[in-house]
């Protein structure tokens, strides 16, 4: 079964939601970059979460979800592009390797300094990215033990929209369900706040009956039918997710130009060529003496300062 993404509204329109199930794209990400089991599961949840968040926004750009960890996990990144192209990667500390089914807090928030960063990078030139940051602990300083709790905290603090979500990933699928109360015009409460609160509470109550095994095994259409069969769900089908890495030899060349001629020639003198491997998809790019000469020849346009290698 391929990837599936659904957006939906319930009842009178006071509740909206997104459901996603990644199979093909998740298998492609797993095939290209292998990680410890605990890190791999987190990457799956982050991939599903990036789709849920992107699907809930009216935004033309890339959503980047990052976990900066202070435990065995140093960094985990999931990107969802405007057409729902996906990629993800992670880095572990060499001196503090994760072991097996590591708890989220032990993996990324061992000393209480981990954080989650969500960046919205607009596609339109000239627009500035928006970035939101939230810790991996609750208001009382207690470590949060799953990514869903961290993102619920982010949505409450940043978007100030009552939200509920559930995430799950295993070796076969990466899945998620997001339910939100609709805001009123201009971000105010709905015209009938009491009714909207009731509708959202009912939706959360129904969604909370969902088991992790069901989220992983059911197609989003079947999931909505089982959970909200009395709620008159209206379903919308956006573009379907897929694995897509934006790296290219041209982007790597831009990165090398930014490093400068001296740095590149130093590596060439030591190794004979410059080898760059994409952290997301594992693709390798090699530049020899001839390639390097072309990079810095007179008249070659220099990349803008904001260019990224991959």
How does the overall form come out from the CA principal axes?
Answer: elongated
Structural class: alpha+beta
CATH topology of the largest domain: Hsp33 domain
Count of discrete domains: 2
Biggest sheet strand line-up: 7-6-3-4-5-11
Using the 3D structure, state the CATH architecture of the largest domain.
3-Layer(bab) Sandwich
Total E-strand runs: 13
Say which CATH homologous superfamily of the largest domain is assigned.
Answer: Hsp33 domain
The chain-level mean pLDDT equals 87
User: Sheet bearing the most strands, described?
Assistant: 6 strands, mixed
* Share in β-strands: 25-35%
Low-confidence residue ranges: 185-190, 298-309
- The first-to-last residue Cα distance is 29 Å
Order of helices and strands: EEHHEEEHEEHEEHHHEEHHEEH
CATH hierarchy, class of the largest domain = Alpha Beta
- Number of discrete helical segments: 10
- What Rg do the Cα atoms give? 21 Å
Q: Assign a percent range to the helix content.
A: 25-40%
